[in-house]
Amino acid sequence: MKKTLLSIVMLAVAMAGFAADGKVHVKGELKNVGDTLLALTQRTMNQPATIVVKDGKFEFDFPTDEVTSFFIVSPGLLSRQPEANPVQMQLIAVPGETMELVGDVKSRYDINGSKFYKEYHEADLAMEAVNNEQSAMMEKANKMMAEQGQEAAQKFYSEQMPVLTAKKQNVILDFIKNHAASEAAAAIIPELQDLDKMKEAAALLSDEVKNGRMKAYYQNIIDRTEAQKKAEEEAAKKQAPGVQAPEFTLNDINGNPLALSSLRGKYVILDFWGSWCGWCIKGFPEMKNYYNKYKGKFEILGIDCNDTEQKWKDAVKKNELPWLHVYNPRSSKVLSDYGVQGFPTKIILGPDGKIVKTIVGEDPAFYTLLDELFGK
């Protein structure tokens, strides 16, 4: 098994329940894991189980009475302390089974064990080559980011990732077709990361597997992905060019109410951000450059989200952000009204208060748009 980068969406949707009854027995013999590991689900991040490791060997029971994803990580990942060899493994727990982990977490390790994990090992090997290709592509993109900048890296990624994603989906669907009676075929459905492909894969399973103990695991992910897709479609409608931006009034940095309509007559960029958002913070230097480059041609209204007021004010001061700011409390409907799905989200409004364009993430396309609008 190769180390795989999993999307935030996968981490979020792969979780099922966590209960005290039932267990999966885990045995490990791994290099580069240190002397302590933690086992947890997303729901138990504040109360992880401690695993004592001696000479790379460990053994423990992970409690669960249903099939679920869980993590084995090094303590530094939770405490956000730098580590020489951080460990992060996402695994599947099947009650009543025994999992065996053997290899090196820095390069390659295998998952094997009792009947289910023997089948899973076979599925894992089928995906290994394309996963390695994806990892190599990500390493090259990161290198390009450092050497050539974000725009070149993003162009490379956007060209290569769809090709490798389609290739991996074909590998997974071929495996499921040829192993329809294997529970491992159901377990790898989430790896498809596409709603239609996941539904197609589920239909290929044998009736016994389709309706067996794996059903809640894969169906939960399909249902959540479908709900997310619907939310994204609704967001696209709310953020579409030409839509009148919903009015709101929020308190500014001095505690005074600021209405969006008070900025009518000029271009306004609504910047949805938070002090906890690394990409938001990372983008501020370039935003300040462009704010000064086209000074007076547009206004930025920073809308802080999911922060305390003090953390918001501290972040504005620390990053020396010269534009307008308002605080968006959790009770507000602004995020819902604008269909914000991720951070940062930048929504450019025209002088008439209508949406010109929405850009999610720290994307060079935002600055290209500013040049097109104001560089004439």
Characterise this structure:
The protein contains twelve helices and 15 strands. By secondary structure, the protein is α+β, with helices and mostly antiparallel strands. 29% of the residues are buried. Strands 10-9-13-12-11-14-15 form a seven-stranded mixed β-sheet. The chain has a four-stranded mixed β-sheet with strand order 4-1-7-8. Strands 3-2-5-6 form a four-stranded antiparallel β-sheet.
Overview features:
disordered N terminus; 376 residues; alpha+beta; seven-stranded mixed sheet; 23% strand; four-stranded mixed sheet; 15 strands
The description of the largest β-sheet is: 7 strands, mixed
Number of helices: 12
In round numbers, the mean pLDDT is 91
Report, as a whole number of angstroms, the end-to-end distance. 53 Å
Q: Approximately how much helix is present in the residues?
A: 40-55%
Structural class: alpha+beta
Strand-helix topology:
Layout: H1 8-13, E1 23-31, E2 36-40, E3 49-52, E4 57-63, E5 68-73, H2 75-79, E6 88-93, E7 98-104, E8 108-113, H3 115-148, H4 150-178, H5 183-187, H6 195-204, H7 207-210, H8 215-238, E9 249-252, E10 257-259, E11 267-273, H9 278-293, E12 298-305, H10 309-318, E13 324-328, H11 334-338, E14 345-349, E15 355-360, H12 364-374
Parallel strand pairs: 1-7, 11-12, 12-13
Antiparallel strand pairs: 1-4, 2-3, 2-5, 5-6, 7-8, 9-10, 9-13, 11-14, 14-15
